[in-house]
């Protein structure tokens, strides 16, 4: 089964740019003869070659028209290659654009990659060393090329891609990825008929998975670059782990992985990903790619050989961190249970037979808002789920109490649900979010499970539900590195849809992905001692304050609010031990912290100075070892 991964960043802007003034011209255009006698079109860009100078060359193979780079500039080098110390060759894939005349059905593109590498190495302007670069589909073909082991291929830099073709890439949880396949079809790849012909895991999928996973064929150093908001996280992380263990012995310690806060098409953006901004991630991918090339293609002593195996962006803290393997040390699995009141706690619920219920109508599915989407009309990356998703009656929300210390997560979450329905088949979808002090609920990752596939994905595994019977399902989420900052909350949304990211279940138990009777489903999620639904998270700990509804904590009143130079706290019960007062701005930054003891109170009251704090909205937190209370305050000066 053929796999195509699309470089999403090329969109309608590309059409305009094609007719714009060119930024850079190739030194020459050529048609390179492949082993079957057919020709691929290439653009060749070179620095000054006078006097017979020769350079290492970076090869880019694209299905998106090599002429594109004449108008936007070259990867890594922009509008000029004169001082780059590299040549660059950009080739159109067989069957695409300038190479459309070379089309041959089901041709192994790895052979074309081999032939291009060896043609480049034989040219007078090449010093015999060739590397490869490219995103998505341009990354996948690098693995196919490396598999053929061309003698002059020295290293590769594939971004947001892996070579594997897995059933769960197209049917995560057994559910069809609607918008993903729609985008592939819109780009002319015609994938949906192939995928829809294999709705269950069969021999075609088994064969595809076998022949597209080949870590033992890799004999050159790889720098794999990915994003926490990309849809290829699983295949990337898995393949990196495999080449570290199974590639040629002389390169196993030379592979590197870079994971940033990026979407599929956002690695080279200005730092804006969805509704969040990561300015210190700008330029990292290009910078490390050039270090990789400089080390292996130019033998520059830049210490790249001693660099960490994994460099990753810890979102929330917004810092770059290093690891020798994934997941890193310092986290362990914690089980957090869902409660009837919508809370998330470490203790298992005490009451039996409790569930939360919602009605799912396939004609009105909960909408996809952000996430690891591909379709051009959909948002990508972190978006607020509070307004358009969590406000719906068909979405259950489970939220932790306010965190009083940072909760660091690195790795994969799994969500375990005990569910029932009044229908023979339905879906259960989940979203994991980071809830900010201003109540924005920012999407981190999502997943889904189709109930007929609860026991597996083969035809023999599938079965209808028995209405009213309770089933356990597990929804695995992709790897992520996120710190839930103090004063934030952790949230899980549970529904039965996430459309158009996933197909909407008709609930009738009949044939899928075809017209049929559409039924409304009444679905239950159990939150009880006998059927306790929970999330398992790889975190450093779970540090939350006591619920605002706790009966044992004192009530705290604040005055005046809005405040000026000070704000007063009045305790309903005089504290008996020391406590801490903190003030946090809406970005989670602590702007005031001070320890107090009971003797600091004057008639159960305490004045907190606000001098030096700017006008705005803040959260004031009072806590001791037994309770935590948070109040919103407004400073007006």
How does this structure look, described?
With 637 residues, the chain is of the alpha+beta class. The protein has ten helices and 32 strands. The strands form seven sheets. Strands 13, 14, 15, 16, 18, 19, 20, 21, 23, 24 and 25 form an eleven-stranded mixed beta sheet that branches. Helix 3 (109-121) packs across helix 4. The model is unreliable at 1-19 and 548-552 (pLDDT under 50).
Summarize the structure.
The chain is α+β, with helices and mostly antiparallel strands and 637 residues long.
Keywords:
6-stranded mixed sheet, 32% strand, alpha+beta, 637 residues, single chain, 14% helix
Sheet of most strands:
11 strands, mixed
By DSSP, the count of extended strands is: 32
Show unreliable segments. 1-19, 548-552
Q: Which shape, going by the Cα principal axes?
A: globular
Strand residue percentage: 25-35%
Overall SS class: alpha+beta
**Which oligomeric state applies?**
single chain
Present the secondary structure layout.
Elements: H1 12-18, E1 28-33, E2 39-45, E3 55-62, H2 68-72, E4 87-92, H3 109-121, E5 126-135, H4 137-147, E6 153-159, H5 167-170, H6 178-186, H7 192-196, H8 203-211, E7 223-229, H9 233-246, E8 256-263, E9 272-273, E10 276-277, H10 284-297, E11 310-314, E12 319-323, E13 332-338, E14 343-345, E15 355-360, E16 396-400, E17 407-411, E18 414-421, E19 427-435, E20 441-450, E21 471-476, E22 480-484, E23 489-495, E24 521-526, E25 534-539, E26 556-559, E27 566-571, E28 579-585, E29 590-596, E30 605-609, E31 616-623, E32 628-635
Parallel strand pairs: 3-4, 3-5, 5-6, 7-8, 8-11, 14-16
Antiparallel strand pairs: 1-2, 2-4, 9-10, 11-12, 13-14, 13-25, 15-24, 16-23, 17-22, 18-21, 18-24, 18-25, 19-20, 19-23, 26-27, 27-30, 28-29, 28-31, 31-32
